[in-house]
Amino acid sequence: MVETTPLIAALEDAGYRVTGPRRNVVGLIAGRSGHFTAADLVTESNRRRLGVGRATVFRTIEVLSDVGVVERIDLPSGEHAYIACQPVHHHHVVCSGCGRTRDVDDAGLRHVVRDIARQTGYRVDDHRLELFGLCPECQTAASGANRPGPSR
Amino acid sequence: MVETTPLIAALEDAGYRVTGPRRNVVGLIAGRSGHFTAADLVTESNRRRLGVGRATVFRTIEVLSDVGVVERIDLPSGEHAYIACQPVHHHHVVCSGCGRTRDVDDAGLRHVVRDIARQTGYRVDDHRLELFGLCPECQTAASGANRPGPSR
DNA sequence: GTTTTTGCAAACCATTTGCAGGGTC
DNA sequence: GACCCTGCAAATGGTTTGCAAAAAC
Asked: In order of start, what are the domains of chain B with their CATH numbers?
């Protein structure tokens, strides 16, 4: 009865050991609809009495991040949050209402980056674009009488 | 003999009091060529025996940030760094060699953002683009020891 | 004179690390 | 069985806060 999720599969493929605590952390991540912080997972782990230690949560996030299935985003507040995503180059639109994100491909950005490199003379090795706003659901919710809230 | 720098002027204009410690912090920032962390300023303040407390450094950075003349950037390492800049919407290319940054205008990015909003249905309120690479000087310096191959 | 600001130290919060025991391949 | 991983607790590093004294307007 060993379930395999994409995140677990990514761990295996990269040669990391698949352990109980790691499965638990992955489960916690899967249960999140939007972005999450390390503290979120620790809190939730305690609430559910999973017995996963703080350190392991941090270490697992790091491992998943190395593998590329979890990515760190920097919220406007300065907090470090994480999201699960595909291990390919892309960017994110983050909903400031519910925290959900959507992946966005590089699209026209490639040209913008090239132009900037040309203008500044910098050799641009990496770039990061983050967008913040309201997702369609939260727009609807906000325009009515109800406040936006996470759904599950 | 009260000197006025752009940062100090911004403080005054916003109605903040211009104090000795704030002048000192602004002086420290002016002495930096690239980005800086709060810790950098604290260290430098101690070295120069300016008598500016840790808390004041943090509070001054916050105030300058509110006013818009200092902006936080999130380095790939996850560190929070700051740079002095103009209070208009723009983006940054950060040199991973020397830490110096250059401002970049919105240029073609505007279109990219609009396309993304259209594709995802999100109402995009804000965005942030950060580019990392090597500035022309650092490219030259590195080319002696590095093998060729940079873009262009 | 009133209101803001400061320095200090302690508090706080997030993240990391050392290490002995336990689990996985 | 060898090596990786985990939990715990303590250490760390960055940032905030309470408060009385000092400074700015």
From this structure: 1-87 (1.10.10.10), 88-146 (3.30.1490.190)
- Look at residue A144 in the predicted model and tell me its pLDDT: 64
Mark yes or no for CB contact A76/B126 under 8 Å: yes
- Ramachandran region, residue A67 (left: φ > 0; alpha: ψ -120 to 50; beta: rest): alpha
- Which pLDDT score is estimated for B146? 53
pLDDT value, residue B147:
53
Residue with tokens 């325009």: A143
Map residue B38 onto helix, strand or coil. Answer: helix
The percentage of residues in chain B with a pLDDT greater than 90, rounded to a whole number, is 82
Whether residues A116 and B107 touch (CB distance < 8 A) is answered with yes
N- to C-terminal Cα separation, chain B: 50
B135 CB neighbours in chain A (<8 A) are 120-122
pLDDT at A107 over 90: no
Name the residue facing B115 among A74, A108, A126 (closest C-beta): A108
Residue B148 is predicted with a pLDDT of: 53
Written as one letter, the residue type at A128 is: R
What are the pLDDT digits (tens) for B70-94?
Answer: 999 999 999 999 999 988 999 999 9
